Amino acid sequence: MTNVxxxxxSFKTQFTVIFFALSNKAIAEWDELNxxxxxxxxxxxxxxxxxxxxxxxVAIGVLxxxxxxxxxxxxxxxxxxxxxxxxxxTKVELAWTIIPxxxxxxxxxxxxxxxxxxxxxxxxxxxxxxxxxQWKWQYRYLEDDVSFFSNLTTDLDEIYNKVPKGExxxxxxxxMVVIPAGKKVRFLITANDVIHSWWMPAFAIKQDAIPGFIxxxxxxxxxxxxYRGKCTELCGKNHGFMPIVVKVVEQDEYDLxxxxxxxxxxxxxxxxxxxxxxxxxxxxxxxxxxxxxxACHQVNGQGxxxxxxxxxxxxxxLNDKAGQIEILMEGIQGAAMNSFSYLSEVEMAAVIxxxxxxxxxxxxxxxxxxxPKDIVEYKQNKI
Amino acid sequence: xxxxKITILKLSAAVAGMYLFSFALVPLYDVFCxxxxxxxxxxxxxxxxxxxxxxxxxxxxxxxxxxxxGMPWVFKPSKEVSKIKTGTLYEATFYAKNTTDKxxxxxxxxxxxPSNAKDxxxxxxxxxxxxxxxxxxxxxxxxxxxxxxxxxxxxxxxxIVLSYTIFDSKIEHNLTMDHDSDHMGS
Amino acid sequence: xxxxxxxxxxxHGHHGPxxxxxxxxxxxxxxxxxxxxxxxxxxxxLIGGAMAMIxxxxxxQPGMQIVEPEFYNQMITLHGLIMIFGxxxxxxxxxxxxxxxxxxxxxxxALPRMNNLSFWxxxxxxxxxxxxxxxxxxxxxxxxxFYAPLSTTxxxxxxxxxxxxxxxxxxxxxxxxINVIVTIMNMRAPGMGLMKMxxxxxxxxxxxxxxxxxxxxxxxAVTMMLMDIHFGTSFFDAAGGGDPVLFQHIFWFxxxxxxxxxxxxxxxxxxxxxxxxxxxQLFGYSSMVWAMLSIAxxxxxxxxxxxxxxxxxLAAELFFMWxxxxxxxxxxxxxxxWIATMFKGSITFETPMLFACAFVVLFTLGGFSGxxxxxxxxDFQYHDTYFVVAHFHYVLVPGAIFSIxxxxxxxxxxWTGNMYDERLGRLHFWLSFVGVNVTFFPQHFIGxxxxxxxxxxxxxxxxxxxxxxxxxxxxxxFSQVFFxxxxxxxxxxxxxxxxxxxxxxxxxEWTVDSPAPYHTFGTPPKVS
Lengths: 383, 186, 528
Hints:
The complex is a heterotrimer. By secondary structure, chain A is an alpha+beta fold. Chain A contains 12 helices and 10 strands. Chain A has a 5-stranded mixed sheet with strand order 3-2-1-5-8. A 5-stranded mixed sheet of chain A has the order 4-10-9-6-7, with helices on one face. In chain A, strand 6 and strand 7 (about 205-210) form a beta hairpin. The longest helix of chain A has about 35 residues, at about 40-75. Chain B folds into 2 domains: about 1-35; about 50-170, Ctag/Cox11 (Pfam 04442) (Sandwich), CATH 2.60.370.10. A 5-stranded mixed sheet of chain B has the order 3-1-9-5-7, with no helix packed on it. Chain B has a 4-stranded antiparallel sheet with strand order 2-4-8-6, with no helix packed on it. By secondary structure, chain B is α+β, with helices and mostly antiparallel strands. Chain C is mostly helical. Chain C has 2 domains: about 35-235, Cytochrome C Oxidase, Chain A, CATH 1.20.210.10; about 265-520, Cytochrome c oxidase-like, subunit I domain (Cytochrome C Oxidase, Chain A, Up-down Bundle). In chain C, about 70% of the residues lie in helices and about 0% in strands. Chain C is globular, with a radius of gyration of 23 Å. Classes of the chains: A alpha+beta, B alpha+beta, C mainly alpha. The interface between A and C is large, with 89 and 95 residues.
């Protein structure tokens, strides 16, 4: 080859490479059209693999359909009244069996390599047990014993088209998974009831959550950011309504967050687990009653006749502990009594116990107190 | 032109055979899993002695538990995170308590991560092998695990997670006698 | 034997079929039974299609507008079951019934009475399945793939009827396949060796063996489900020592060959049509046969590519990735052979040819997305998203269904003696072609962009393409009502067809009159 020709060849090659690289990038930016490149080395590798196979398929398609469309154009009965008679050609048939086979090997090599990188699973700096429930996720940070549920927070009114939909419609949760950037995070995925699946496109992680079994996945996310994922295995009626949100933050912010969570968990555990005596609950509950209840039910628990029911001598307060918990937690439809579920379990238990123990209620009724564990149980049964 | 009857008989036998094959897949699946370690379940072994050695390396061992479908027992590892040595016999326990007022049978299923560690974990004793764990109302128990992690465990595995999920076997218990601890007198 | 009896024997052909409704209940004639299967599958296609319209209507915009999530899950489940077991499979069996005996020069199927039974249990099975919509707890709502424990421990009471229905459909397929194999292996005209058989016959021979191998496995799977639900076993329940993943292995051992069952007869049909309308002998007959055989055999060792995210170890994932990719080779050979048939042919584009050409292009597109799905690490991003939905709808709708429509247009002159209206046929084609692409091409995008499948509502970034897809779906749906009109019109009358019907058509079916006499090939023809 002359120097000029080889120069042109290399230009052609460079041009082709640059064209594909740029169009890959362009296509990657069309968010609505293509897979995400993601936020990790693995996700980018997966994206590149996806685009490689895609372009090979495009090339094969152009070639094959080219011949076909040409035939449909050039060999109509009008243009070619007498058809050729060949109906076999061993050489050609061998060629188009062997060449595709070689192309497949060329695809299989990088694919196998990427799969091996994904399976290369050592310990994580942070290990999170992920449990799929109908229809929410539970996350447990194993080293720190921090655990919480993550529920969809999109309002039913948005879903049923009564109010406009927010920007993160069906993609927002009450508790996000927070992980540190640049550290290896391992997810240990299982389920509580039926099969679910935990998918984070930005990390190229998808593993089925199978009751009784553990599947692992790992990631190292370079950049802080907010990433959203979905459940990807039909799990019942609200399969479409249990999203995942992962917030990646710098290490020091993560440390603060996890310490906050730990402290809160310890505090709550102490308070909730503790064996409260009636006297302790009443003492705690009194101030809560003053803050939250006095306006309607009055200091003496008498209420206002005809408007706000009295608590002293009330049948519910005397004899129906479960019913009283329900009223405080849910409120009463069509009445002024709101739900007080925003109170902590300790506060809720304290204020209810206060009412059950005051104004002679303890002697007249069953005298049962409510402890924080009762509220925890109520909340769990509600799920 | 050939014997229709014979063809029909052969095909019907094939149909019956494939139907039985699908049921054979059940034990075959377990055999296959045992050989290849596909589902991460660790089977009971009696020849763990061969895995005991003096020179071992330290690895992390983590126990995690989950109660399936709100199974009401308390069920948790006595010690969640440990450092153990390969080649050494290790004993651990799980604490379980039946917090209900009915007799119940639970069943624990185990799973290992990473799944290819399964071949190197020799369990001599594990409550997860039992058909069921029966607990009276309010009864609590410490469930034993005895295991050795073989030295041959690949070097790149530095941490093993053993997960146990407890299920309610939903076995009905008909008690004809009252279960007071004092049976004397009535 | 007197001459009188002999004449009487010949006269049977002149008496024709029985009169009235009884004819259809008691018939053992392969043409009648073929007609029954085809009409039944058309009805199921429209019913499954109506469910698709409900699904796409709900997905027209974000938010819940038309149905509740529980009912939506019933719609997607029944849509899949009805299209697969009520639409595609019975249509191919109907075509087999009509065509296989004629193509091999046989007077009828080998087991005509079993043939009747195979058909008539189907309407019963689907009556049971559809009636589950009105049962307490609703119809099955766990997807057509009915994974445990969603389909066992957490399933509605109607699941038992679903299992019953699946058993009956399976029995129908198994009996039909036995019939097909016995017919082909024992009743070919003298001189018709296996490598002289028309490709549609080959495709059905192979399909029938696949059905015999895997429908019993499906029966096993649903029997195990039944036992888990009602008899206290724990095949799929971890609580009892079982494994939900076992279900998936058993199901997909059936499920993967099943999808080749749904496409092999299509390959046969397309080979016939392209050959005829290119006026050129099909290129590479023996490689076409070997390709179909390879596809069938390979189909048994790829099943876990439906389960890449279930947690299998690396070795298993690699094996299934490689075996799945390998299927592209024989499939590619077939596509190249069709195109080589057209190359330097003398082509006209009547409606059957339009559908067949569209099949080649669009099925290949489905094959490309299938190849992408085979790549395991990439599949982690595609699995259970709309990318998969796009893939299988491309191979099933412009794949299998277009081949069935092509077959109807191609052979209806033989069945009825009337030509269909060519202008209307072409209109139906173009409406369907546009409709199918507008419906399913955008689904590749939303799948890649992150939309999972089997959800009734979605985040806002998926809204635009969902709207487009729904528009396409309604266009496609109404085009099929138009197709019904065309078919009825043709049955009732039209330009009279000759025996040969199409210039250049090869095969024994074109040597008899149109419409084909009630009994054909009472004496076997000589095949050179």
